[in-house]
Amino acid sequence: MNGVHEHCGVFAIMSLKEENIIPYIYWALLSLNHRGQQSHGILVYRDGFKLFKGLGLVEDSRLKGLGDWVDGLSSNLGIGHVRYATSGNLSREQLLEDAQPQVINARERKIGIAYNGNIVNVVRLRQSLLSKGFELRGTSDTEVLAYLLLDAIRSEGCLVEGIRYVMGEVDGAYSVVGITDDGMFFAFRDPHGIRPLAYSIEETRGLIAVASESVAFNVNGLPLSGFVRPGEAIVVDSSGMERYRLANSNSAFCAFEYAYFARPDSKFEDGCYVFEIRRELGRRLAIRYSEIASRVDVIVPVPQTAIDAAYGFHEESGKPIAPLIVRHRYVRHRAFIMSPEERSLILSKKYNILLDRLRGLRVALIDDSIVRGDTLRRLVRILKGAGTKEVHIFSTFPKITSPCFYGIDMATFDELVGFNRDTEEIAELLGADSVNYQTISDYCKAVGRNDLCLACVTGKYPTRYAQDLARRARREALLGHKIRGRIVETLGR
Ligand code: SF4
């Protein structure tokens, strides 16, 4: 799958024994880099805030400036972030300006903050802050969130009540980490817990950490101790960690984390590794579409995220699996910023497709999801051009028919191949012999939980403002009106 990009990853850590935590943040961000590769940042607290920001992969900065910044620096408290911009301007300067963590200074308080998600009512919140005299510099949602929190801490009298106020005001998805100017760290998750957030307590070494995915703990030798609950805040200071339940809503965890975003070796609340769930998704596809599965000659996964599902499909159907599409590991060009011609070219540069092994075969092409469909369409054209007899597409994720307003880069109805088309029409558009989507009920059974956000496949959004935006955007799309830019900014005024 291509054309949809990860959003962000966060990490925070405190050592109660004055150990230097900077190496932990570095390794955590490396392990979370799949969640965002446009920019990254580290903020530590030692006699005030010390901030590093870089563009590209975290590993690139190790060679370009991070080493100098770290030299001689030591701290027992810090946060880190990797970002893929789903909001804001994409110029190099602006990407650096909007990189997180961000440090905000207003009304005699200062906080550093980083988050994963998206604020749906950002336009109204920004206007309200401007009318109160706050000077917002960047174009991302983060500073809106930070100013809102600073203002609320002042008006509500303390950090925890400030967070409670923010949860009541902000519509959207947000898993937040931050540091205060008196040396505490905090983390909180929106009332529906749409984006992930886990914590670790390592008592022997006196470490407390929070991360988007458990892999950030694994890489640091830390245990996965639990998850920040929807609507919960945690506050960590030199005496340890306190938890506060601040909002009560139904949990609606992003279903797409399982199919696409998360690393296969991460675990969420269900307790399974993501790769185990993906394997089950493949198995269920083979059962649901057993007639087509029985007719194919070979199973070919689209790398990387469909590989586990392809194994499940293989286990159930008994058909051979062959990695005939191989990704060139170090080609990092991003298809979304290219012209259609450049995209076609990069597809052949990005993947090595072993066409001589496909001739005359009926292929089950397993992909994690179908969003815009442009990469799949090109892939099918190449496979058919190489003489395959049939190409049947299997999507581990159900049919995506609605945009995501919660931090995923699929923002409008008209860009979605699944919007207003039935499966046969989609197959025809992609040039495939059939398209076979996971059903919603099979998806929930494979994941083992029902408390999921599935708004992009059902059109039912867990938050009120998003539901209203979707209704208006859908109407515009059905009228054939194109919405320029992000729906939350264009229609949210
Ligand atoms: S709309 Fe889809 S991608 Fe967005 S949070 Fe919900 S499940 Fe995830």
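^ iron/sulfur cluster complex. The domain at 8-251 is CATH 3.60.20.10 (Glutamine Phosphoribosylpyrophosphate, subunit 1, domain 1). The pocket of iron/sulfur cluster is lined by residues 194, 254-256, 404, 406, 408, 453-456 (CB under 6 Å).
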